[in-house]
């Protein structure tokens, strides 16, 4: 990362200052390199002189002047290369300005980086899993679940860009009462289609979509269910209904570009005997107790847990929590992920402490499990909240929202806030083709650059991605503040990726890409790109436009959006 390179230069200057006898040879922590709040203070700033003065006093007992230390360190910073200028500020801060020739040379490097632009090596090959959505397979995906999908998918992309090996997983809850209730509801709808008077089960699934599912099954089985034992019918309905829902879920999530590496069946944990095996192991370790006819996980033994949790009910059936223990054992012990990220709705926050207890009981570091909680989504049209489907009267589905505003708008709008913040999704704004709509503005920025490059090519000014003789000389003409600001803005991408990984949230990318598009607009307004009277400057500005297009496309791809070439 650029910030790391600057840190290395400053650290080397500190060592040189020691070698010159201008500083005592005392241990000094790596200097912090920060972005100044005000651009006029430079590109980066460091407090190295302040921490050095503190280290000297601690080691020698003598008071040191941070500003004098800063002056000594600055004298050992190379005058060429990455850093162009340094300035002292306040009691001893060092402000750093990037070298203009170095910035100019980055235009070519940005273009050459292409789809890997901004990638950093944090992961060093670590295997991570991101498990997200994992909705009950009993119906269409509610529009609120789209936030889970977009957040998890974009986070997986950002982690990949940071050097991690990432697996996307959907955990299919195909065990338990909800699926039994789903099958019984399907049976009632099937009987109704067969002309029989059948009532839906109490607390059954009331949605109109259940009729559609029953119609699909009727087309497959005809009237054969009428002559079969009820137990066999319900068993077959579970299987057929689950297959229909999972196919629909894959299709719905595919509408917004979300695809998984694995759909993991909860039932498989029971079929393999893993649930019973893990519970038996925990019992031997003293983490399972038995009373009131049930088996309990002794969560209260572990921090932040006040009550124990049932893992085997009085009827001998395991609970969902028992499956959860086995599932995480499978993730960490059997499949060997270094870390796992679970994306959960905020109403699951009460389950977070017991997940830490699970990890500790399994002999695993709780820090290896990261739980990201996201807040709710409120759809707004004409200033009023929208909750129900106009077509069916049921809840509004992801499919209906995508049909109304488009997949890119869904993804962008749901990424604009950090997970813990609620999202007000303005349906009217999302479809407007004007600059107030950030989705339109960013994508139009990419399309406009494509148009500029195409026009230049038609006028005999090719902008091939391969280097051409004279590029260095041409790029040296990029001296206008708007040109240099645009290069600086593109170079922030690796820091944005680093931030998204640190916060386990890619919401910052929406603000960065909008800022990048605006910075390009400022450049385009102040600098004439295609000028036949100045071919070398035209070449340089076309290369800078191409670099910007590369950056816009890269960020849009990280967010799971398209980069249109025309609009």
What does this protein look like?
This protein is an alpha/beta fold and 567 residues long. The chain folds into four domains: 2-98, Arginyl tRNA synthetase N-terminal domain (Gyrase A, domain 2, 2-Layer Sandwich), CATH 3.30.1360; 103-122 and 434-558, Isoleucyl-tRNA Synthetase, Domain 1; 129-170 and 260-374, Rossmann fold (3-Layer(aba) Sandwich); 177-255, no CATH class. Helices cover 50% and strands 13% of the residues. It contains 21 helices and 15 strands. The protein has helices at 2-19, 48-60, 66-74, 100-113, 145-161, 177-193, 209-221, 230-255, 266-271, 274-284, 320-334, 352-361, 398-405, 407-415, 427-430, 438-458, 471-475, 481-491, 493-503, 508-526, 535-558; strands at residues 33-34, 44-46, 83-89, 93-98, 127-131, 165-172, 262-265, 288-291, 294-297, 309-312, 339-345, 369-374, 377-381, 384-386, 423-426. The strands form four sheets. A five-stranded parallel sheet has the order 7-6-5-11-12, with helices on both faces. Helix 5 (145-161) packs across helix 14 and helix 16 (438-458) packs across helix 20 (508-526). The longest helix has 26 residues, at 230-255. The mean pLDDT is 94.
